[in-house]
Specification:
7 strands; Aminopeptidase; alpha+beta; 5 helices; 165 residues
């Protein structure tokens, strides 16, 4: 039997659940990168007011989320997180496809995202889904302790823009 889930847009009241999911999803990366991952440093009470969050619910629980920001010429994927208990079910891929739909509906020609170079499984997934490396740079945010803390910026072209605001 196929798993059922639904995707809905977050509301300000979802900020605490978003925080809990992000903390659970990213905790495993702390030892690898030597600091709190960027999503664990965010203020979600504020972010939910300024960014779009789409929440994937499986049963009664929050299983995954994608945070996006519409910009002039792209849709930035700020964060994608899947709860450890729900990883391996295709929810991340489902949310990335959802982001493509959001961008297409807005007439935006591309998606962008960024990730840590040490998240090799994520880099492989993004490449398999059509994202290409645009550039790499030394992580410049708070808490950097390692000289190999590299942010990888990736882009996926969706086609020509059909709409201009």
């Amino acid at each position: 039997m196929a798993e059922t889930f639904r995707i809905r847009q977050a509301e300000p009241a979802d900020a605490a659940a978003i925080r809990a999911l992000v903390d659970a999803a990213y905790a495993k990366w702390i030892p690898l990168i030597g600091r709190l991952p960027t999503p664990m440093q965010a203020n979600y009470a504020q972010a939910v007011l300024n960014h779009r969050f789409d929440l994937l619910q499986s049963g009664e629980g929050l299983a995954a989320l994608i945070e996006t920001l519409r910009r002039d010429d792209d849709l930035l994927i700020v964060n994608i997180a899947v709860h450890p208990n729900d990883q391996g079910r295709g929810y991340g891929t489902e949310l990335l496809a959802h982001a493509e739909s959001i961008a297409a509906e807005a007439g935006l020609p591309r998606l962008r995202l960024y990730t840590n170079k040490k998240y090799t499984a994520n880099l492989r997934l993004y490449a398999a889904l059509g994202y290409r490396v645009e550039r790499e740079e030394l992580y410049g945010g708070p808490g950097r302790t390692l000289d190999d803390d590299i942010t990888v910026h990736m882009v996926k072209d969706l086609g020509p823009s059909r709409h201009r605001a």
